What we know:
By secondary structure, this protein is α/β, with parallel strands linked by helices. The protein has six helices and eight strands.
Amino acid sequence: MLENQKQKNLIIVNPIVEVREANGSLYEEEKLQELLRMFFKKYAGHSTLYIIDDCSATKELTKKKDMLSELAFSGRHAEQSVWVISQRYNSVLKDLREQTKWLCMFYTKDRDSFDNCLRENDVIPTLEERQRIKEELKKKKHRKLILKTDQPTDYWLLN
């Protein structure tokens, strides 16, 4: 019976982890892209979730279209999904932001990130409602705003 169940995979990538060796650094942007490409090919057709932690930590992941963009665009055809974690919405590659289906936001002092996120995703209809939600997020540390950007759009403010 277990043979019929599809394998599920979880791949967590933290691009800021850097290991220094006698002959140099183990972390290189090209190696990260190669690693993502290898996992993408290996797990194509198997339910796989990639969690990219602290996406804003490396400029290469925020500026350059590469394997991360391919995962966002083509991953669903290979049963692969991407979650990106970042402290700043604006530092996530625009290609990834444009493919967003769901978004979770906490209060941030980075006004531009918050405003850009709500403007780009256009889920909350009025400026007054956006401002009210921003104030609510500010009041409670772990309160979060969930945006569903797929049609039909929706949003929830959760404690």
